[in-house]
Automatic annotation (TrEMBL), chains A, B:
<comment type="function">
    <text>Broad specificity carboxypetidase that releases amino acids sequentially from the C-terminus, including neutral, aromatic, polar and basic residues.</text>
</comment>
<feature type="binding site">
    <location>
        <position position="295"/>
    </location>
    <ligand>
        <name>Zn(2+)</name>
    </ligand>
</feature>
<dbReference type="GO" id="GO:0004181">
    <property type="term" value="F:metallocarboxypeptidase activity"/>
</dbReference>
<feature type="binding site">
    <location>
        <position position="265"/>
    </location>
    <ligand>
        <name>Zn(2+)</name>
    </ligand>
</feature>
<feature type="active site" description="Proton donor/acceptor">
    <location>
        <position position="266"/>
    </location>
</feature>
<keyword id="KW-0482">Metalloprotease</keyword>
<keyword id="KW-0378">Hydrolase</keyword>
<protein>
    <recommendedName>
        <fullName>Metal-dependent carboxypeptidase</fullName>
        <ecNumber>3.4.17.19</ecNumber>
    </recommendedName>
</protein>
<dbReference type="GO" id="GO:0046872">
    <property type="term" value="F:metal ion binding"/>
</dbReference>
<dbReference type="InterPro" id="IPR001333">
    <property type="entry name" value="Peptidase_M32_Taq"/>
</dbReference>
<dbReference type="GO" id="GO:0006508">
    <property type="term" value="P:proteolysis"/>
</dbReference>
<dbReference type="Pfam" id="PF02074">
    <property type="entry name" value="Peptidase_M32"/>
</dbReference>
<comment type="similarity">
    <text>Belongs to the peptidase M32 family.</text>
</comment>
<feature type="binding site">
    <location>
        <position position="269"/>
    </location>
    <ligand>
        <name>Zn(2+)</name>
    </ligand>
</feature>
<keyword id="KW-0121">Carboxypeptidase</keyword>
<keyword id="KW-0645">Protease</keyword>
<keyword id="KW-0862">Zinc</keyword>
Amino acid sequence: MQEKLNDLKKRLAEIIDINHAIAVLDWDQQTYMPPGGAAGRARQLATLSHISHEKFINNVIGHLLEELHEYTEGLPYESDDASLVRITKRDYDKARRVPPALVSEIAYASAHAFDAWKKARAESRFSDFSPYLQRNLDLKRHYAQCLGYTDHIYDPLLDEYEPGMKTSQVKGIFQAIKRELVPLVQTISAKSHLVDNAFLHQTFDEQTQWEIGIEAARLIGYDFERGRQDRSPHPFSTSFSINDVRITTRILHDYFPAAFFATLHEAGHALYSQGIRSELEQTPLAEGASLGVHESQSRLWENLVGRSRPFWRFFMPRIQTVFPGQFRNVTDEKMYCGVNRVQPSFIRVEADEITYNLHIMIRFELENALLEERLAVNDLPELWNKKMQEYLGITPPNDALGVLQDVHWSHGSFGYFPTYSLGNIFAAQLFDTIKRDIPDLNRHFEKGEFRGLLDWLRIHLYTHGRKFTLEELANKITGESLHTDHFIAYLKSKYGDIYHF
Amino acid sequence: MQEKLNDLKKRLAEIIDINHAIAVLDWDQQTYMPPGGAAGRARQLATLSHISHEKFINNVIGHLLEELHEYTEGLPYESDDASLVRITKRDYDKARRVPPALVSEIAYASAHAFDAWKKARAESRFSDFSPYLQRNLDLKRHYAQCLGYTDHIYDPLLDEYEPGMKTSQVKGIFQAIKRELVPLVQTISAKSHLVDNAFLHQTFDEQTQWEIGIEAARLIGYDFERGRQDRSPHPFSTSFSINDVRITTRILHDYFPAAFFATLHEAGHALYSQGIRSELEQTPLAEGASLGVHESQSRLWENLVGRSRPFWRFFMPRIQTVFPGQFRNVTDEKMYCGVNRVQPSFIRVEADEITYNLHIMIRFELENALLEERLAVNDLPELWNKKMQEYLGITPPNDALGVLQDVHWSHGSFGYFPTYSLGNIFAAQLFDTIKRDIPDLNRHFEKGEFRGLLDWLRIHLYTHGRKFTLEELANKITGESLHTDHFIAYLKSKYGDIYHF
């Protein structure tokens, strides 16, 4: 049986090498590739993806998984071997249900939809994008049917990003937080004069921003021997192995938080990826558990650490040293309030911790309606704007600032959005457990010490890689199912304090 | 038959996509990869190389080539299809002769030899490297036997880098230039006081060096929309497609020529790669003809253009603008002489246009002796030093400055070195033809116009990609076989003028 296991591992290692090569090509495309490289890169990515897929759905892997399945059922659930077979089988069974031709068709359609989206957004004209969106929807409906579902057509799509999560569960979660957040936003909007952040809108030297971001990433434990930061239009993180986990940021010369928090956010993802147990290297387990769990870590480091009062107690003097002209008269308390200012706005990626989730809910509700054919593509912009008014009290002046702002639907990535909010919710739940285990966490932060937090996260979460689902991790680490109480309490306490209510 | 041709092209395109992905991974490894990435990268490169090799030696490709061979023999020799089948068959027949296990063994041994070489060079201790060199030699002797040869064991190895070239031909060429160069070096050494280059050894701001290098590369026609420059410890150029051809340079803060001429050199390679006919994209023809022909282009742009008097007539004012403190009192004539100073030295890559070739000859003679077992590995350092004294009149004080300086043998790349000199020789031969076709070339250079030269090279050389051998190109473009008269005449005229003899 050991021989079969080794055979499986060898085959998977080859596929993972290919997937990591794909990640390198993708990283280069987003960071350094000159414009002329686009056509060649598309071909290279298509070829490697095809080879990887072909090698994975090979019958031999299916037979090995069948034979090993029985054997590993006798092993502890969380053992490396049982987890490897369980998770790989989950991937394999799904991959086999989708005809390769449909995979190619989706890739092809989304490449064109992406181009169309870029142009449509630049011109702010939804009608130029709608036929491509329709095509993506049709293909993804077909895809969902191949994967199969009993309850919602959204289920198998959501499952791609958040294994085991159901649409009904997300609906319940969103109802719970919507009930709390909409009035919260209204309360705060009436008190918006209480928080000033004009001092964040000044001119900041780009190289200095770059360096202070690197310093902060290093401070929280990102290992630059096993990673690096580069610039890209859209910040992201990516892994080529547990020991080569990269981040990117973008710098706005006239708004300090953009680069700084993008770096902390991506470094949060990277801390997770760098913290996976090295024994899992070159297996399908050497990744984060899901998009939601990954996002919980980027948000935890960006918001629960980087937008916390004790963090700025420690870091404000550093920032004042490098930007004396801009921050001389800014206290740590003023900085803390400034970087947490709540302001309903049109663009999701610029939103604060509260309104962010309302942006997500709008997308979740709309993509569900589209997939269930309760909503026609042509009616989408109108409903988008209506929901923006309902949840956030503002109406986008055009489609570029509304329905066309996000790339996801052009990629056909329906079911992706909720994972952002699931990440926020799980981060808050985790953090309450952490504070029980490390009662003086705030004092650590005030001294610039983040090692205790990082070690805790490594031991309890990062080490496991992809062995468990979000729900399994929630139960295992926090002792309860994923739920919204911690997140709501966190927001109410934090913003009640900042906005005096 | 068209169907079979399309089948072949499709299979080759897939392999080329993989090879370009390998090139991206290699580029990243040499430019940006953090130290932790090394182990993962080695695995990824090994996996992709294995897949590429496996796909190429597939019997189906062999059958297709057999069937198409007959058909394309009826087509003109230089037609795209005939060339595709001819060149691919040449590669295929060679690839099939080598057992895949030997390919892996060589890759494995050279990875270890490379590590050992780096350490041995750092400690300047040849004995730490010699067992690895012995292993590389044994494997490459075996490799040469697999490929087969009638005359010299060196022939099939040389053929890897310079298709069609024979050891005996290189010997003849080297005898001819050695006869001329050794006395030339002696003559110049006696007059070394005539040329001063102390002004090149000052402090030069790195960013300014970077920018002026980019300006020069752009000036000679390197297209930054289809390429880019990055930094790496060892400058190189690489292609991911005809429209994504990258270069690197390294900057020394205390010696101006290092970065500037490395950029021109690599840009020369890149102009060649960017100039290949776009119809050849994604075929094995979309590369340079050979290492020697490639080197002819890097040398042509670096030396025949960048180290020419008319180039500095034009460019000196620009350099004075960006480095006023360093170059205010340096005339273009003084610059021209300074960047052409001849000085026997220990390190090949720092050598001038004359002594460079003597460095190459030493390596060529020694690697021949090693492969033919006329020389034992342990006796190599002594013979190296003896030849340095004989050809250049100096003896390296240690192995780091002697036999351990180059990476090539640690990679097992025996047969590579002569292509550097073949490039120099072919460049001079080409340039005489160009000057016949464009009589006022110098006046172009003096005005900063290089488009005429680039267009000529594109039409006569670059466009063909890999269709012809060096010898075929020499005959086709210059009307004669490759020979040394042009190169000797060029050196005598140029340096006779500079050193007054």
